[in-house]
């Protein structure tokens, strides 16, 4: 409370009133000040307090005295009132005389008996952020403490300081991230160039097929494949493929015989993928490699075939597998039971539901079965039409 | 005489529009004949599509199957293409069912007329459809619009002429 000076309460030329609030009692630290309840006025330059009953009694304090301030919430009970606690710099040497000569507390409190502390606090925050008193000096010399020499940036105290630090940190993080991704975008540009280059070379190979030897072509294609770039040459001339796929196809031919026979001669490609990779343990196959290898079964005269259904489902089946037999047996099964759903059929045959549905659909397509679609599900009946 | 349902009516797949083209053709043919025989048995000349969906013809509660609205429209379209059905409105909610085509009716009527030696006589439409003489004939109770069309068909063949009288229409047979 010893930071206050007597004042006439009049605003100076450059000073503007920001907010005023009635019913404010001042506290010297934790003790009630020996003043009554009055009006607190906040201006751009000062914090002024005037006694309600005795207008002569008016004190003021420059805002530059404020280090920081905080809200103190009201407790429970009618008597408890919300307060603003203001921490202050030490008394400057040339301070004008005030109500207190000396105070043992470096802080004061404003107690808002008639509320209004939220708005007051907000305005005080604004004024403390803007520090308009620094830009427009008052006609009367007012002791301003140590603030003007110190630059704005290093005033890293109080909530404002914390907020500034957070903002700075965020900006730095932002910058770091953009720098990191700069490299990535550069990589993407390079990768695009690479793809273009390889594509142009592949086209040149296609045009000048005779000039480049088979060996080199195959080697180049294998490089392309290992980079994961689709090679138009291999697709069209599906007879030739890379050595890797050829070997792989042979290996699959050996490996899949037994499982296929167990499963009635047909397996979905997804099942094959799982089986093969589980058996390999390491050096797993990618789906593309598997499909490419399976496409070579026929050219290698292996007893397996890759087959694609209308619905897009891919299966590997034994060459000895005859579809007509399957359909005839499916018809028998359905006729026996009267009608079957895909699930029931799967259970009957030990097939996966997907494959059993494909078989039923094929039988329907051939006209041996007809369908019954209702809320109960899709059932197949022998075609009595 | 109660209506005899065809075997397909108790066959659940009958109520699902078959994707297989050949099967579908057979299915639709069966539906058309069922619809016509049902309407003929119950002497129905007009059908409201919404009501039809609930009628026992399209809805077999015993096997808990019924034709979807889409399928009903397909069946009706088939009937229309065959000349047995005519839409009464643009929204396709009501239709005329001609389980006998006008020409066929015309032929029956003319047969009766000539059998009874009533050629060259003038009849009112009411006499033909509701008269005591025609009771027992198949065309007894024929609805006016159908009767008119049948007579128009005969007129086109030159076997009759429709006359407009004071209180309605009449027809003379040749």
**What profile does the largest beta sheet of chain B have?**
3 strands, antiparallel
Q: What integer is the average pLDDT of chain B?
A: 86
**How far apart lie the N and C ends of chain A?**
105 Å
How many structural domains does the protein architecture of chain B include?
2
Structural class call of chain B reads alpha+beta
Q: Major sheet of chain A, described briefly? A: 9 strands, antiparallel
Description of the structure:
The complex is a heterodimer of chains A (385) and B (174). Chain A is an alpha+beta fold. Helices cover 43% and strands 21% of the residues of chain A. In chain A, the strands form 3 sheets. In chain A, strands 1, 2, 3, 4, 5, 6, 7, 8 and 9 form a 9-stranded antiparallel sheet that branches. In chain A, strands 10-12-11 form a 3-stranded antiparallel sheet. In chain A, a hairpin with a 2-residue loop joins strand 4 and strand 5. The N and C termini of chain A lie far apart (105 Å). Residues 140-152 and 231-240 of chain A have low confidence and may be disordered. Chain B is α+β, with helices and mostly antiparallel strands and 174 residues long. Chain B has helices spanning 21-41, 49-54, 69-82, 102-115, 125-130, 144-157, and strands at residues 46-48, 59-60, 65-66, 85-87, 94-97, 122-124, 160-165, 168-173. Chain B has a 3-stranded antiparallel sheet. In chain B, strands 6-8-7 form a 3-stranded antiparallel sheet. The longest helix of chain B is centred in the N-terminal third of the chain and has 21 residues, at 21-41. Chain B folds into 2 domains: 7-97, "Winged helix" DNA-binding domain. Chain C. Domain 1 (Arc Repressor Mutant, subunit A, Orthogonal Bundle), CATH 1.10.10; 102-173, Winged helix-like DNA-binding domain superfamily/Winged helix DNA-binding domain (Arc Repressor Mutant, subunit A, Orthogonal Bundle), CATH 1.10.10.10. The chains are: A alpha+beta (385), B alpha+beta (174). At the A-B interface, strand 14 of A face helix 1 of B.
